[in-house]
């Protein structure tokens, strides 16, 4: 009994420490956005201020970088999702030996350092006289983000009953109808998850974007340049807004999920 109680308390202590380890840096970083000092810190506390949010609001370069980040992320998702989905379907239909070889080739970009992907993308397209810019950032990011989508869709395909395809074809359905009405509906959860991962992977990307962006900025490049030129709490203000948006999104999702579960239970009763 004592050992069981000790294990229970040990697990709870570990969970608390783990959550504190994850959240305390975010709290400190967000709190520095409200400290009335030019150096980003919460100690010593010089007083509450919203000056850094006002300075962030007036920073035109930051807003331009934010727009570029969103446009690049959307373009990356638009390319990565169909490429990754098609790659997963192809791999799922191959035989054992060829499948393992092609799988290794497709997964390799995930294991490649971002700086290598960025430099390789720049040098490859330079041979075709394609200048650096956000379009190269999109292509460089797609080369490895599509692999994430592929892995998610491939995992989802493991639970798909291939007999449904054969039955639909025997009943006169075309391959396009089988794809649209049977296979893709089964893959939608994985495709949606892949799109989300692709969007956030693109938004946080730094190495690939740094080498391929040309004269354009994204948020990660903007923050990196601020660190080199002298960081101020405007970066903390930006981080606080991003954290707040994430927390609000999680809360909204959880509320909707609980309402859906409650509605489902009422329907079953």
List the helices and strands and how they pair.
Blueprint (H helix, E strand, L loop, with lengths): L1 H30 L19 H7 L2 H34 L2 H16 L2 H13 L7 H24 L4 H9 L4 H29 L3 H6 L6 H11 L4 H35 L1
Helix pairs in contact: 1-11, 2-11, 3-4, 3-6, 3-8, 3-10, 4-6, 5-6, 6-8, 7-8
Write down the Rg: 24 Å
Q: Counting H and I runs of at least 4 residues, what is the number of helices?
A: 11
Instruction: From the 3D structure, determine the CATH topology of the largest domain.
Output: MetI-like fold
**Shape category:** globular
CATH homologous superfamily designation of the largest domain = MetI-like
User: What is the terminal separation in angstroms?
Assistant: 39 Å
The largest sheet, given as strand count, sense and whether it forms a barrel, is: none
- Indicate the low-confidence ranges by residue numbers: none
**Strand tally:** 0
Oligomer state of the chains in this structure: single chain
Output the structural class.
mainly alpha
- Classify the helix fraction into a percent range: over 70%
Task: Name the average pLDDT.
Answer: 84
> How many structural domains in the coordinates?
2
Q: Could you give the order of the helices and strands?
A: HHHHHHHHHHH
CATH architecture descriptor name of the largest domain: Orthogonal Bundle
CATH class of the largest domain: Mainly Alpha
As a percent range, the share of strand residues is under 5%
Features:
mainly alpha; MetI-like fold; 269 residues; 2 domains
Brief write-up:
The protein is mostly helical and 269 residues long. Helices cover 80% and strands 0% of the residues.
């Amino acid at each position: 009994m004592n050992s069981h109680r000790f294990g229970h308390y040990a697990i709870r202590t570990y969970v608390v420490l783990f959550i504190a380890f994850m959240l305390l840096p975010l709290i400190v970083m967000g709190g520095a956005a409200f400290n009335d000092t030019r150096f980003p810190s919460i100690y010593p506390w010089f007083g509450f201020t919203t000056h850094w949010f006002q300075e962030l609001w007036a920073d035109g370069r930051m807003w331009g970088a934010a727009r570029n980040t969103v446009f690049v992320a959307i373009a990356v998702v638009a390319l990565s999702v169909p490429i990754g989905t098609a790659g997963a379907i192809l791999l799922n239909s191959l035989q054992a030996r060829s499948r393992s070889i092609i799988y290794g080739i497709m997964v390799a970009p995930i294991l490649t350092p971002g700086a290598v992907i960025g430099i390789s993308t720049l040098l490859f397209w330079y041979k075709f006289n394609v200048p650096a810019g956000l379009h190269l950032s999109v292509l460089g990011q797609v080369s490895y983000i599509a692999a994430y989508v592929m892995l998610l869709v491939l995992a989802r395909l493991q639970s798909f009953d291939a007999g449904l395809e054969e039955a639909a074809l025997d009943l006169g359905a075309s391959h396009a109808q089988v794809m649209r009405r049977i296979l893709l509906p089964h893959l939608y959860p994985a495709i949606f998850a892949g799109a989300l991962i692709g969007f956030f992977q693109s938004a946080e990307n730094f190495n690939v974007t740094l080498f391929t962006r040309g004269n354009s900025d994204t948020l990660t490049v903007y923050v990196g340049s601020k660190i080199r030129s002298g960081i101020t709490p405007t970066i903390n203000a930006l981080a606080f807004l991003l954290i707040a948006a994430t927390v609000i999104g999680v809360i909204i999702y959880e509320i909707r999920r609980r309402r859906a579960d409650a509605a489902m239970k009422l329907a079953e009763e």
